[in-house]
Amino acid sequence: MYCGFIYLGIAVNATGCSQSALSNSIVEGSSISESTVSSSKSEQVSNAAKSIAATAATPLSGAKLKVNYLDVGQGDSEFVELPNKQTMLIDAGNPENGREIISYITSRGYHKIDYLIATHPHSDHIGGMAAVINSLDIGTIYMPKTSSADTPTTSVYRRLLKAIQNKGLQIHTAKAGVTILNTGNLSAKMLAPNGTGYGDLNQYSAVIMLTYGKNKFLFMGDAGNVSEAQITANVKADVLKVGHHGSRTATGQEFLNKVHPKQAVIEVGAGNKYGHPAQQTLNRLKAIGATVYRTDQYGTIIFTSDGNTIAVNKNASSIKEQAPPIN
Predict the structure, then answer these.
(1) For 259-316, how does the pLDDT look when each residue is reduced to its tens digit (9 = 90+)?
(2) CB neighbours of 22 closer than 8 A, spacing ≥ 6?
(3) How far apart are CA 84 and CA 64, in angstroms?
(4) Which of 324, 224, 226, 295 is closest to 78 using CA atoms?
(5) Sign of the CA dihedral 248, 253, 256, 260?
């Protein structure tokens, strides 16, 4: 049986594992270590993920998809209102953003996250996730597996693992080839990570292609040039969530040529110490013809799709101010 794991001394379930078997497997990776997961066990994870994807409802005709790029300062968080009435949360900003994200979600009438994805274990992406898990019903959790050498030991990461343990939830491996959701004309698939042993947590980022009808949204997490070069899947998309807050080490020209987005979103904090977004990245996006939306300029930004066309609502607000949703 594919069993549970102990991360940094915290016992956490994985697909198909009983609580009693936890002590038999020790993993030092951020989710599931490369050295412990055999190919046969990986297949079980993949099959389990396919089974989960198969249970999702099909969108009704005329239903809308809403992608909320949340203003969490220098961090990432995207709340997706799926057209089949399910929800997805990709990352959860910094620790101080947790309650704000929860308030934003519940104010829209949601109390469950069907698909929760931690793209990679940096605190500006998983900071508020423990609070989300503690406060809302959670369906499926995806996290990437890292080599033991890249294992984070931060208190933020430990709190996340503890929250998962306390709710008895299971972690599913985030990696290329995983299907999160596939029903009717709606799908969500992972295109990365494609490797391990990066020595850089950003490159472990789960890269997700969300498709609704003719519209495609690509979420890059903090994936940089290294991960971009390893992606072999079709990355053509209408909307690109720019990798690593628009840093100069992401959104390379070759990769951008493949995506060729009409619109790009950069989630970034005003006046941040990293100099994000880099002018080189902005220049590349402009040259390719993408309209750029930045959370440090517009606040939370909502994209709405009917499967054919995409509308943009620039709220010019933070998630604290609770701008009304698009109807």
Answers:
(1) 999 999 999 999 999 999 999 999 999 999 999 999 999 999 999 999 999 999 986 4
(2) 3, 4, 5, 6, 11, 12, 13
(3) 9
(4) 295
(5) positive
Laid out side by side, the sheet with 207-212 consists of: 179-183, 186-192, 207-212, 215-219, 239-241, 263-266, 291-294
Nearest CA-CA partner of 14 in 31, 36, 29: 31
Whether the predicted pLDDT of 232 surpasses 70: yes
pLDDT value of residue 17: 42
Cβ–Cβ contacts within 10 Å for residue 245, how many? 25
Contact 169, 133 (CB under 8 A): yes
Provide the β-strand partners of residue 311: 304
Q: Which amino acid makes up residue 313?
A: N
For CA atoms 276, 279, 284, 286, give the dihedral sign.
positive
pTM score, two decimals? 0.86
Give residue 30's pLDDT band: very low, low, confident or very high (50, 70, 90): very low
Q: What does each C-alpha distance from 67 to 89, 90, 161, 274 come to in angstroms?
A: 10, 10, 26, 26
The one-letter code for the residue type at 213 is G
Which single residue is written with the structure tokens 């698939």?
189
Instruction: Give the pairing of strands 170-174 and 263-266.
Output: unpaired
SS3 132: helix
DSSP tag of 57: P
Sign of the torsion formed by the C-alpha atoms of 150, 49, 24 and 11: positive
Pick the closest to residue 45 from 163, 157, 144 (CA basis): 144
| Domains defined along the chain, listed by start | 5-53+62-317 (3.60.15.10)
CB distance 295 to 323 below 8 Å: no
- Per-residue pLDDT of 82-106, as tens digits, reads 999 999 999 999 999 999 999 999 9
